[in-house]
Write a structure and sequence with these properties.
This protein has helices at about 1-10, 10-25, 25-45, 65-95, 100-105, 110-140, 150-175, 180-190, 205-210, 215-225, 235-270, and strands spanning about 55-60, 60. It is about 75% helix and about 0% strand. The chain is built from 11 helices and 2 strands; from the N terminus they run αααββαααααααα. It has one domain (about 1-270).
Length: about 270
Amino acid sequence: MSTLVAEARKVPAFMRRDLLVLLSYRTAFASDLLFILIQAAMFGFVAKLIDPSKLPEYGGVRAGYFEFVMIGVIITTVSGLLLQRVSTAIRQEQMIGTLESLLVSPTSATTVQAGSIAFDLFFIPIRMAVLLVVAWLTLGLAFDASGVMPSLVLLSAFVPFVWGLGLVTAAAIVTFRRGMGLLGVFMSILGLASGAFFPLSLLPDWLQRLAEANPVAIVLEGTREALIGGAGWDAVGTNVLLLGAVSVLAVVGGVKAFRAALAREHRRGTLGLY
């Protein structure tokens, strides 16, 4: 227990480092946020062209395209940002020459990875909240308030799945110095079969069946049921359990792959190479 507490105390140091990095690149942060807001405005105008009858119903409520697609934007943005951060944290340490010294310090590899995304787990939801508030004030975005907490629980069960994929990519980066390309293709396939920007009913039947086992599609549809249809805890409970099980498998597989990659590089004496 004392070891676990000691490792947990190191996480705030990682968060402070990432905060200082963010503050040193304020222009990049502002432009990134502006891009997200422009994207929201674009979908707001596109929504005026979409026939509402083509959209699905959630809890007996016909979805508006703006509400439908903004949930897709939020989930895919959160997934992309977290995946990129988890998978590139190790590459960044490689490039600046601090990876080897960091991993030979009395800090576990798991703490390094957890610390690398701790700030993003705190900050990305704030960015998404700002996006939703601006869209609500300026473009008339409307969600059922009773679905906020169930949707947050769904997202919390989904985030470890992204972390697990990021750990697998980090393992590939440690081994091959590359790895984002293959994972990018995989995530593109998951995104296509998730219904993030259009209803799943438009997809071929075989792709619709695959979407039933797609964690991205599961969290999207569950979130829409909660925020558009006002579904309560009973309606999202099954999805939470399913996402939790998939996330556990992803994290366990990711941790094993990452540790195996580190052990291989230690044996070869190539951990510091990039």
